Amino acid sequence: xxxxxxxxxxxxxxxxxxxxxxxxxxxxxxxxxxxxxxxxxxxxxxxxxxxxxxxxxxxxxxxxxxxxxxxxxxxxxxxxxxxxxxxxxxxxxxxxxxxxxxxxxxxxxxxxxxxxxxxxxxxxxxxxxxxxxxxxxxxxxxxxxxxxxxxxxxxxxxxxxxxxxxxxxxxxxxxxxxxxxxxxxxxxxxxxxxxxxxxxxxxxxxxxxxxxxxxxxxxxxxxxxxxxxxxxxxxxxxxxxxxxxxxxxxxxxxxxxxxxxxxxxxxxxxxxxxxxxxxxxxxxxxxxxxxxxxxxxxxxxxxxxxxxxxxxxxxxxxx
Length: 319
What we know:
By secondary structure, this protein is of the alpha/beta class. Helices cover 31% and strands 23% of the residues. It is built from 9 helices and 14 strands. The strands form 3 sheets. The chain has an 8-stranded mixed β-sheet with strand order 4-1-9-10-11-12-13-14, with helices on both faces. It has a 4-stranded mixed β-sheet with strand order 3-2-7-8. A two-stranded parallel sheet has the order 5-6. Strand 13 (233-236) and strand 14 form a beta hairpin. Helix 1 (44-54) crosses helix 7, helix 5 (197-204) crosses helix 6 and helix 8 (281-296) packs across helix 9. The protein is globular, with a radius of gyration of 19 Å.
């Protein structure tokens, strides 16, 4: 079928309440101080969709939002970024999830989730939409809605049958736990998987990045990209091994850096003139690295990255 979208981002949509510089020393019986607090739209699907749209991809999103103020905030931000939101499902029964993020001075962070993060729509019920995109992101495997094997399999098989490139982000489990072995029958259909170092270690049981990648490859995943934070990234497939250092930048907040990395990867991959199997992965990874780095220079997952031209200028400065 004719492809309507370049990229379809699927998964979680939420609001991040970001607290920077939290002082654990109380100033009263129930009062604490922090350097700053802000509300930012987030969730893997939202972050990836907004970044991809800014980079020039015709991007749609398949996610769920509550009929509440937080949902209005997310929807408005995505529309302003150029994301097609016509397939967003809104519900009076389930509120929009809100995550509290504590961000440290070096940009690292910890997050607090709650029961509303367990609810999400069923992307497997939208096969025509999945088939209408050149590529799809699963944001993220091992978290709702992709913490159920039957949902993962239905979406991936629909995408594969339609010739849609499958880009699977990952997350550590927060409610339901899955293993690679439980997905071994479907992992060979995944074109690219994007765990960070902690996630790769958790799911592979290994501590060396190359050994982590080997485990994913042994389950049939075609291309493995392990995001190594300040150490850059490692790319592995059956033919290539690429290691790229991190870009030079002073991080402020790492929230959404991996999602911006994936969006940058998708943009560079889909804008290539060569077929996927002979793609210039080094150039694609370099662009993705820059997108992730730019994200960390501002508070919030969708604040730093503005455009493809910005990324290209950043890369010129890195030379």
